Amino acid sequence: MPDLANDHEFLSYCEDHVKTNTWFLIHEIKHLLKLAGKPDQVLANGGEERVSFVQLTPALVQPLVDQARKRLEAPTPSFEQNMDTLRNLTEKFYWMCFHANVGSFAHPFLEFNGLMSVYVDVLTKSGVDPQQANVHGGVPLPVEDHQIEYLAEKLECIFAPIIAANPNARWILERALLK
């Protein structure tokens, strides 16, 4: 077991033993710690085109490290519990949009809820870990034809106006989706 008081040792330990649901948090903490070690101002999130600057210090990063430690000590939720969490969040998002009357002034925004809902259904039915069923994990996610048609309909509603306004958008989206 590494010295958990030493942030760099702790983060190395996390990299090898972290639970999958905390990997992204650890990755972000490592990034912030690198930035915090620089005395000069750095661009937020490492973005080269951003204009807002922040001064990162160990005091700013420490709460994230503490949060990561707590997550590592917590029991790992089951697949079913994770799917219930995703389904509940999707439902809450839908009802928040409904009560805010989003459909009347930003219908495409509401379509994201349809994407999330079907995604949760596909994950639940397949049993595939969402940490692995993505471009980074490389695990295929089986989807039925009617589900992909529904997803395509939602994506069309969201992105067709973008493609119409920007000739490069179609090529960029196709490249991203059909690699």
Q: Can you give a write-up of this model?
A:
The protein is mainly α and 179 residues long. The protein has two domains: 67 residues, no CATH class; 99 residues. 66% of the residues lie in helices and 2% in strands. Strands 1-2 form a two-stranded antiparallel ribbon. It is globular. The N terminus is likely disordered.
Order of helices and strands: HHEEHHHHHH
- How does the helix and strand content classify structurally? mainly alpha
Mean pLDDT across residues = 76
Helix content: 55-70%
How far apart are the termini? 41 Å
Biggest β-sheet strands, sense, barrel: 2 strands, antiparallel
Radius of gyration: 20 Å
How would you describe the shape? globular
- What's the number of structural domains? 2
Tell me the number of strands.
2
Strand order of the largest sheet: 1-2
What fraction strand? Answer: under 5%
Low-confidence stretches: 1-5, 14-21, 38-53
Helical segment count: 8
